[in-house]
Amino acid sequence: MTQSTQYKHEHLLSEKGKSRSFTHFYRSFPLPDNFKAHPKPLELVGGVPNFQIFPVESLKVGLRSKPFPNGYDTDAQVNAATANAAPSKDALSFDVLVDASEVNKVAEKDHHEEIDIKTGLQYSNTPGMDPLLKFTKDFTKEVIHPGYEDWNTILTLGGANGAYKAFEAVFNEGDVLLAQEFTFTPVVQSAKDIGFDIVSVPMDFQPTTKGGKAELTYADHLSKLLDNWATEQPGKPKPKAFYVIPDGQNPLGFSESLEHKKKVLELAEKHDFLIIEDEPYAYLNFQPVTEEPNFQLTTKEFIEALGDSYISLDTTGRVIRLESFSKVYAPGVRTGFIVGHKRVIELITEYTMVSTRNPSGLSQIVLNNTISALGGLQGYLGWIINVRNEYLKRKNALVLALQHSESVKKGWAYVNDAECGMFVTFVVNTGDAESKHEYMMNEFRLATAQTGVLTVSGGNLSISEEAKKERANFVRISLASAPDLKTLEEAAKRLSDAVVLLHKDDKQ
Amino acid sequence: MTQSTQYKHEHLLSEKGKSRSFTHFYRSFPLPDNFKAHPKPLELVGGVPNFQIFPVESLKVGLRSKPFPNGYDTDAQVNAATANAAPSKDALSFDVLVDASEVNKVAEKDHHEEIDIKTGLQYSNTPGMDPLLKFTKDFTKEVIHPGYEDWNTILTLGGANGAYKAFEAVFNEGDVLLAQEFTFTPVVQSAKDIGFDIVSVPMDFQPTTKGGKAELTYADHLSKLLDNWATEQPGKPKPKAFYVIPDGQNPLGFSESLEHKKKVLELAEKHDFLIIEDEPYAYLNFQPVTEEPNFQLTTKEFIEALGDSYISLDTTGRVIRLESFSKVYAPGVRTGFIVGHKRVIELITEYTMVSTRNPSGLSQIVLNNTISALGGLQGYLGWIINVRNEYLKRKNALVLALQHSESVKKGWAYVNDAECGMFVTFVVNTGDAESKHEYMMNEFRLATAQTGVLTVSGGNLSISEEAKKERANFVRISLASAPDLKTLEEAAKRLSDAVVLLHKDDKQ
């Protein structure tokens, strides 16, 4: 495994990652030239059970025609009763075959291969079973289109596992990762585990009450930090990578502009670090509440609306992209994938062999054959558009309800018209007095306990003590689990009411 | 998380493992006394999708009545054609409900709870979903019966992942693991990764041509090694743990006697190390070919025949047991579990949160609800007995064919009547001349390529250079993947023929 000479950023990879070389005990032995080997040897090699001892003999999977196929049903009782009812109208279903080798011989254009029981319940290739791994490559080509040639993919056990494996491929003990000051904080635990430091990058974000375009920027802070590294972070080595959630930022709900991404990529080139872009939310891509929502996107329009990502702008294999099936399919499949330079994927593959091996074969069967039943990549994108439409409805309902709420109208709070993802930011106006900030946020959290709405405090999603103190005057509202739009509207009211409670003694 | 004071062997756990403390950003905030919180708050907390956006709406799983329900079919063509045929006679099937909360309320005795789609496809608890985790505890109690009270269980992503996680909980860099000189060699890769050393323990094993009881022993070697540690392994710290495959040893197929296990456990107490027992094969428990095979075992007889394990003899939480569903259910579920002292499980849980999270929900649904459909633990044990019966038939066919083969009859080779597991050892008699050993094994491997049978060289399954040189004059024959008994008998003939080829110039 020596593709190292082909990879420009080899010096940014971890020593442990580069040192691995997994040798399997099934290795064959060399035969002399002209040796007459038996043409049909019997293989009694691995502890690989014959499929006829697997208990599962058949599998039939029924699919929803779309999210909430029967509309919303706010009555929890009725909901539970209908949950097991007849399949939704126009729903597809598929049988998983014991042996799909005949089916897979079909050479139709766009034929998406199925995984059968015999293969799916067996030991299998670490990077992923062939049809699903091929799908990740097709998806990458058509939807993500990296800006460099030598990319590859590998399945992971979901987003968090993907991040851990990417970090493992990059960091030695004592190395430095840059991350946004508000971010998916479990990265801190990965850092402790692998032994690298995290340096946070301050962010500017400006929610708007008018639904106009607000922007998240941090490139200037990042530039300043890197230019003055020795004085800003004395004693620390320069960073090897930047962890970023560019689209549907968690927790803030913003997407970075193309221009901003270009600036950050320039900084990565100037200061020589990798970019690890975590994009679980990227496909839940919205329009502002001021626009008429388009629920009839074609797959072409959908892909175009996604725009450019860091990896599509990258020409040298500097970007590693983390994908997850959790948000657009289901978290329980515990499956995602990584796109990166083939050398990076090589390191991650070796680590995967030692640590986790491939994701569940049942997950791979159900995921892959769903894609097949939907008609391949185009059909799967159709499903994602349906999911995006559901989240767009949710986002609009919540943002509009907050915009029209008393607290926002009075200027006591602001709401971010989220551009993408699962989260809307509700900012409490704590005024200019910095000393009052922490006190007011605490009062606000108590008030929400009283009005009855649970969200996540901005401070809990920060890796910076300064940001927690000075810029965490917001909560993250999740669009994901609510049973319907009315619940989101009621939550908006309760959040606003909580802010109003803070001002109950103000002159009105 | 401070149960450390209750655990006698705390000093044998890794510093990294002990230092973890995962804090989730969903944590709640404290409310003042007498605070009047809303009775029904709306939760908009996690990025946890509503189940109505999961594409999967229904799932129906059909089960085989037993392994090879339609008997053997040696014709590969016909096999492929019938693979997708009608379900086997007496086969069960089950529907996975979207919402099983009503079903799970049933309070019947032995009622095994089902996992529904709503739960199984969602994010879930790291140690495992409640019904399956409860099953691992019931199984542990009834079948494994640890000798100490404070044990707990956690699901893993299969046997190899379980081993990695157990090692991670124990070893700091530079620590020492003991392992059998012939073993599951991928542990070497885990050792490199985590940074510990492996010291191999020499083994005595004596296959028999007569089908009588041969024995695997190593306690005396182990005792000698430990008593003379400073001179035998100068500069190395004393070992923190011993990795052992006690039943159906891989590659040798032996099971350790109760007496031998007691000796080893005494050594563990005397020299203060943990025992990590890896038992994926333990339930494929055989009878010698000289006995009439009992294919009608009751579950009680089956459990009794398993006998005592290291963990059942352990009274202080010194033993960690690794279990896998790969060999008795299917490898593709990528699921196993660990039994250990609750403090050890606590450390493994923290690491699991950071690294892999829980096994696939689809795997957990299918595994758990299979157990439910089979009637709970007793029914599941019935399935395992069926699998064991299939392997017993295979073992007997292969061992008898080898015993009656020309090479064994002539004393040029020996066969081990495997006591348990998936593997039979075929030993080539290389004579007394040590210098001839490597040459003959190489010739033998070439001869098998000519007669047409692929197995694994003993040397590939050794971690000791000395053992590879002096005691690796055997191959490991897998019973697992062959389509029928005839294939095993043909393989026996080809193995024997290969030995005969080595002697073709001998006077006969």
TrEMBL record, chains A, B:
Keyword flag Transferase: yes
Transmembrane segment boundaries: none
InterPro entries linked: Aminotransferase_I/II_large, Class-I_PLP-dep_aminotransf, PyrdxlP-dep_Trfase, PyrdxlP-dep_Trfase_major
Cofactor requirement: pyridoxal 5'-phosphate
Pfam families given in the database record: Aminotran_1_2 (PF00155)
Domain Aminotransferase class I/classII large: residue ranges: 110-495
Gene Ontology molecular function: any one: 2-aminoadipate transaminase activity
Entry's Gene Ontology BP terms: aromatic amino acid family catabolic process; lysine biosynthetic process via aminoadipic acid; tyrosine biosynthetic process
Key words, A-Z: Aminotransferase, Pyridoxal phosphate, Transferase
Coiled-coil intervals, chain numbering: none
Superkingdom classification of source: Eukaryota
Protein family per UniProt: Belongs to the class-I pyridoxal-phosphate-dependent aminotransferase family.
Name the UniProt record assigns to this protein: Unnamed protein product
Lineage summary: Eukaryota, Fungi, Dikarya, Ascomycota, Saccharomycotina
